[in-house]
Target: GNAT family N-acetyltransferase
Amino acid sequence: MSKEDVVIRDYREADRPFLRTLYLSARKTGWTWLDNRRWRLEDFDSATFDEKIVVAEIQGRIAGFASLWLPDSFLHNLFVDPAWQRRGVASALLAACYPLCRGTMALKCLQENVGAQRFYLHHGWKIISSGVSEHGKYYLMHRRLRHD
Model:
């Protein structure tokens, strides 16, 4: 599969049921160090409330999504269906987010999520500081956008 096979489009309300499942599944698969017993499908709704959501499709099937809090150019979520990981989906989603933001983009990456850290560092993000959230220690990461 090539990056050309990944189509990025705007979120549609009809995507919600599948994206709820994807969000829950991807967190359970990827965040194994956390207690997931209280996680629910509806968590997607609160995690993306009032955010810009873009969806990645491959051959008409949803493979991932990203959500942005546009007022702060903050990448809040980027999740790929475990079945489609390591196939360019996350890179395509990230690339689609850049033109939607201005100045410097920011995100928080859990320190336990070493794979995500490597991904963002590979894509030009820099660790700016660290902190603690309800999910544990995180790095605040920034990426200066070139189109400003």
Summary: Residues 16-30 form the longest helix (15 residues).
